[in-house]
Target: Ammonium transporter
Amino acid sequence: MSLPGAYQTDLPAVPPWLNKGDNAWQMTAATLVGLQSMPGLVILYASIVKKKWAVNSAFMALYAFAAVLICWVLVGYRIAFGDKLLPFWAKGAPALGQKYLIGRARVPETTHYYSNGNIESPMLEPFYPMAAHVYFHFTFAAITMILLAGSVLGRMNIKAWMAFVPLWLIFCYTVGAFSLWGGGFLYHWGVIDYSGGYVIHLSAGISGFTAAYWVGPRLKSDRERFPPNNVLLMLAGAGLLWMGWSGFNGGAPNAANVAAPLAVLNTNISAATSLLVWTTLDVFYFGKPSVIGAVQGMMTGLACVTPGAGVVQAWAAIVMGILSGSIPWFSMMILHKKSTFLQQVDDTLAVFHTHAVAGLLGGLLTGLLAEPTLCSIILPVSNTRGAFYGGSGGMLFLKQIVAALFIIGWNIVATTIILLAIRLFIPLRMSDEQLMIGDDAVHGEEAYALWGDGEKYDPTRHGWHGSDSPQETIPTGIVNGARGVTINL
Model:
């Protein structure tokens, strides 16, 4: 019986190495991760800030998503996943040619050797085209950039942000990505960062906190009162973030194998546990559950499980959720208020606590809880195990600490240099006049055209029901307001 055309291996569109299941899942996973940023974080940022900053916050995320993609295909991808230049950096080159993009995906520096020179694990060559790998990792780079933006919302000069995005991507993000994923020194040393606890969350949290220091604080009035302008829409953005995380961690094995569904399940277990723990602590400490607190707890659970989602057991995901719902809660709600230094730095959305603390916690817990059998499925270094399982596990925990220190140090130094260089040409912080007005001063646009900001209904300006007729008047019994607001009975 002849095979349908789509499954014949001799067709130009179906080379022998192509696995359609892996290819389909990788593109789906990439789309899910992309949805976390656009529209997920765009909606979340626009809703969680004051109304006067809704447009600016959403635009910072939107711009970053677009700018990162262009920089990624021009040079970024091959700095992170190309041929080795330095132990922590690869040679940059475009990822644009059709011959390169439709060929089989490969990460050239991932061949791992024993000490005697024999190959321990072959080069990473997934069974899908290079274009799928380029796009999947673009979505990772984009969300890292957008998470970082959460630290400087409400006051960073938009022109400075536009210059910062490509520079940070090239000189900061790619270093962590190559070192831990692309075949750099931490990858071959055996450090585990399954899907970005260090490359994404620790990096975004540390760089965001550093950027917040150099940019400076919001206006005092904004720091003292910064309520979300739309809590329900904020929850919609948070929901996209949570559900998109299935692609985030499910796509990390580069195949639709047994590790992918386990990682997806662990991701959701950790997020749910962390949300419940955070909410419980809010109730005990403040007397009432907070919706914003629940979203924070969800994010810390997701960030914490990410470095080990595919190499820990489900009960370990619960442990991660319990700790990620309590330790970042303590650092944000208790420690932050007692630390003069932490209070001096205006980290708008507390990215340091929700991502840096949670990502670091997850990386260290992975060093304790990584299960040997699961590690053997996807990791290049054999006999990898967490300290909880004895043997060489204690060494893995030490490696996780060293890798975290490298990421922290590099992000502090590189982010500082980039911002100080930009400051020579562009002010990092908006003027006080712009900070007072908000979106209208920065973009000439406002988020909402709604009654309720103190403006009274004026029939000479607006007419009734928006009519252009000058003869149309307000119906009897309605005074100074939108219909049904103030009624004379």
